[in-house]
Amino acid sequence: MKNKDEKDVPVPDWRPVRPFTNFPPIEPQPFDTRDSTYIPDLSVGDAKVTKMSVRKIRGIGIRLYRSLSQTFNHATTDDIVYDQIAWQRGMDTHPQSSATIMIPHTGVYLIAVINGWAVHTGTARTLLSVNGVDLESVMSRSEGANALNSLTVVNSYDAGDQIAVNVYQSSDAAATRDTVAGEEFNSLTAVMLFSL
User: Fold this and answer.
1) In angstroms, how far is CA 119 from the centroid of its own chain?
2) What are the tens digits of pLDDT across the range 95-154?
3) 42, 30 in Cβ contact below 8 A?
């Protein structure tokens, strides 16, 4: 090509650096958490998840607590009877006992317990009870006044399992002892992490 001065002008090469077919794929691959809808095995096609919203995906769990103190006798083992539900979704208490929560689906759950004791001297312990069996391996023990027992466990449970909190106190004066009321001092929380 020549311009008006009859000089050669180079013709620009507008071809791509490499063919588009050789460009790396940008589609999320299986198990890629950058996918807008993360489905590990990609068994659900796009047509089935077009209306899915993260606001509509909710977990399963419950938190119980006591709004009033509960009195326990000396050297006596008993369950904490919760009287309030802070929040719940997909889980509930036992029909005959507000001291027990029911596991709705077989899976792995996080269980967290906080149990505060009123001022007193002696020994206090709090442990988890599953289907009426106290688990000595999941226990929090404290000595002296202003005791606060707390425990957290991640474990697998079967649908229908019953979870409760069992306590025991042994005061120096062989007297009764009260728990501290309030969600921040006396609660049982269960959250399902994943199903099995």
Assistant:
1) 31
2) 888 889 999 999 999 999 998 888 767 788 888 999 999 887 777 777 666 678 889 999
3) yes
Q: Which of 112, 138, 129, 117 is nearest to 77 (CA)?
A: 129
Closest CA to 37 of 24, 21, 52, 23: 52
| Unique residue bearing structure tokens 């507000």 | 98
Under 8 Å between Cβ of 114 and 184: yes
DSSP 31: T
Architecture, CATH, for domain 59-195: Sandwich (2.60)
DSSP state of 8: B
Distance CA 89, CA 61 (A): 5
The amino acid occupying position 106 is: T
Answer for the pair 193, 109: CB distance below 8 angstroms, yes or no: yes
Q: Tokens 């299986």 label which residue?
A: 30
Whether the Cβ atoms of residue 115 and residue 160 lie closer than 8 Å to each other? no
Give whole-number Cα distances, 29 to 42, 88, 111, in Å: 9, 35, 34
How far is C-alpha 182 from the chain's CA centre?
A: 20
Residue whose token pair is 């068994």 = 43
Sketch the domain layout of the chain as residue ranges. 59-195
Full-model pTM: 0.67
Interatomic CA distance for residues 169 and 176, integer angstroms: 8
Q: Indicate the helix (H) or strand (E) that contains 151.
A: strand 148-157
